[in-house]
Write a structure and sequence with these properties.
This protein has 278 residues and is an alpha/beta fold. It is built from twelve helices and six strands. It is globular.
Length: 278
């Protein structure tokens, strides 16, 4: 059997694969045995171990479960997110790690529909536009779309998080990708509003100076009831866990919800906007 020697220092993929191989061999498992435990084929495991295939979020989480690294500080999931960081905003992979474990997610978005609520066609248009501008490579554009799909899928679980979403009216009014893309996106928002664990509101332009946030804001309530805040600039994202900094943001979010349209009125605005593009 040919064994491909791999330098863990040669690339992040190689480091990930070398670690999988090391733990597999320490457990005395062959690739096929590990593959059975992970729910993948032996060929797939071999490709990850040798750095020929990029690990996925699902593979990483399965590896954490199989190797017992899920409760450690150095999980495969964390390594995977760092590996993907090259095509993502600085600070964002750290945030996504919290997002996938949150019991409650509060979002405020302006300008575009938040990623967790984006329809596939809408997300592809945004990635393709960034590609045409030269902001990202074709590989990074594909990664953005696939990574977003993974984030959305992670929220579909037996006990999904409560999601309280406020979209600035600009998110609904801004046309992205033409009528068909927008129609599908409006339908996605309407479907989201019907879920038992969600609340969708729109902050109308008429709020004016009463809008407490000028930039997108995310507040995550974790299972231990701690609250994590995340905000972005054009260049980087920032995760904040300090209670004295987070609690005023939580108060501002409550005020935002009080001033925003009710869900019924917000749904009516979305339906009206959808009719306007046909």
């Amino acid at each position: 059997m040919n064994r491909k020697e791999l330098d863990p220092e040669s690339s992040p993929e190689a480091a990930f694969g070398a670690r999988v191989r090391k733990l597999r061999e320490e457990n005395g498992w062959k690739q096929e045995e590990l593959a059975d435990r992970l729910g993948y084929s032996g060929t797939h495991v071999s490709a990850v171990e040798t750095g020929r295939k990029m690990p996925t979020l699902r593979f990483s989480r399965s590896a954490d479960q199989v190797f017992g690294t899920g409760e450690t500080a150095d999980t495969f999931e964390r390594q995977y997110r760092e590996l993907r960081q090259g095509s993502l905003l600085e600070g964002f992979p750290q945030y996504v790690g919290y997002e996938g474990r949150a019991a409650e997610i509060r979002l405020y978005e302006t300008g575009i529909i938040h990623g967790l609520l984006q329809a596939p066609a809408y997300a592809r248009v945004l990635a393709e536009t960034a590609l045409r501008r030269g902001s990202i490579t074709p590989e990074q554009a594909a990664e953005r779309v696939s990574f977003l799909a993974e984030r959305q899928a992670a929220l579909v679980r037996p006990r999904p998080p409560a999601m309280l979403v406020v979209l600035d009216e600009s998110c609904v009014r801004r046309q992205v990708g033409g009528p068909e893309v927008m129609a599908a996106q409006y339908d996605r928002l309407l479907e989201f509003a019907e879920q038992p664990n969600t609340v969708l509101q729109i902050a109308p332009f008429g709020m004016g100076e009463r809008r407490p946030f000028d930039l997108p804001m995310t507040l995550l309530t974790m299972l231990d009831l701690t609250v994590v805040a995340y905000a972005e600039s054009q260049m980087r994202g920032h995760v904040e866990r300090d209670t004295t900094a987070v609690l005023p943001l939580l108060t501002d979010y409550h005020q935002l919800q009080a001033e925003a349209l009710s869900q019924a009125a917000s749904v009516a605005m979305i339906i009206e906007a959808r009719k306007g593009i046909l």
